[in-house]
């Protein structure tokens, strides 16, 4: 397939420096009150300025991506509409690899992707999506890739690992990653707005509203995967053994910190947005809690023990948190070991340190939809509407 000429590789964009009032501060930040409608503070204008560097153009609707393991130049990105692209950052080459047949209802489509960490020895791609055919559901697919032509991976065969029904075209979940022990983690949302769907997040008999943990290196009778022996015991013989944590609504972007702890975001849209650190067996609270606040007092929530978010917020107007991961690059050393995340509607990017509230790195006129980890330890940030992928960098002084 020929290289697609509509893609453009760009050098650093110096036209949009960050205004000084949104500059980065990571020290000396005064604590903010834990008010019901708190928002991440705007940083002090005396600190280092941040700007966006334009890396790619022509990719609207990107929801996830990953560099090929072992490569600092090649990555795969996927659009919510189903198109999967191979990109070569150094040369600016781009190629459409595949188009998944997905539903366009609600917020359905492709939700997340993950490349096996042993690629190319194990050339498998895992995709979380909502198929176009049949009833509403979320499907976890495993694809074998051909790598016999250097620089031109191709999808070849597909196998369905999970197919989970959902009630409405919302809240499928948007997280898929491999953990440090080699297991696959998948984040599934509750599957709808209505109370019947939302109650599933607290039911251990359902995979909806859960974080799953699967061993995709082997199989068990009746399953195209195995259950890790140390998955949590949920004290219910009817509990699904795939469950690693429960109580989420529309979770996204799973990532691990330097201590191998899992982090994710949970999007609510109409109430509070959450950033979580998660351990096996945790209950993150939905639909009994939103953020740190009690949401329901019905019988099903009477005895719940939940782990509150590390941070939660509410903005005026529309909101949707977009997860990222931990920054370790030398490009912006003041950000090292900070968790980066964004808001799709506000256009804001924040950094969360271990001992402070988040600080604002920048607010631009865009819709950040994916923070893609780079091998150097920073991120490509996709603008869903314009189709541009940016890197954060220091503004010239």
From TrEMBL:
Q: Superkingdom of the source?
A: Bacteria
Gene3D superfamilies reported for this sequence = TolB, C-terminal domain
User: Has keyword Cell membrane?
Assistant: no
Which Pfam families would you find in this protein's record?
GSDH
Provide the protein name.
Answer: Glucose/Sorbosone dehydrogenase domain-containing protein
Listed A to Z, the keywords are: Signal
> Manganese as a keyword?
no
Q: Which residues form the signal peptide?
A: 1-35
Coiled coil region boundaries: none
